[in-house]
Design brief:
The chain is α/β, with parallel strands linked by helices. The protein contains five helices and seven strands; from the N terminus they run E-E-H-E-E-H-E-H-E-H-E-H. It has a seven-stranded mixed beta sheet, sandwiched between helices. The chain is globular and about 45 Å long.
Length: 200
Amino acid sequence: MKIKSAEFVISNTDYRKSPTEDMPEYAFIGRSNVGKSSLINMLTGNKKLAKTSSKPGKTQLINHFLINEDWFLVDLPGYGFAKAPKSSRVKWENFIVEYMMNRKQLVHTFVLIDSRHAPQKIDLEFMNWCGEKQISFSIIFTKMDKLSSNELQKNMAKYRKEMLKYWEEMPPVFITSSSSQIGKEKVLKYIEHVNEQMRK
């Protein structure tokens, strides 16, 4: 898939105010500072599309971006805001859950994991929640250029071991680097495949 156009459409905290077009939506979510904005900008080829920041928790709204006038990329607030006020965290968590549970146009969610770290409880809990609610998702390991190939494989193996305690099989897994654009083609090809399957 080649991204020919990517434009910001709307931000909100209520899924009912999301775009009315009946187009498939692909949500991106992960812990704060996982590199989500950088990944979105890399995938779309637009360095200014999603706002990047060195401060975790920059995204605090549901952001819709129209891609190729054909599908929506949805940038969701991260979970696990350690430095954010509890009241803010509860608010963000509530509208994220409402969007993911009730948005009919949401066809797939990409859960971003920082490949540099061992399995995090909050990531495992979130993915298990997606499974319980039958929300289709895959894993995107980010920042793979920040560690050696051996370290990457070890951390991925640890995640696999932890997840297979609860799952019969692993969801789709992608390995990415925003700086070197590794994984871009595979993620976009996956989205293109899902879109084609929906049209049949």
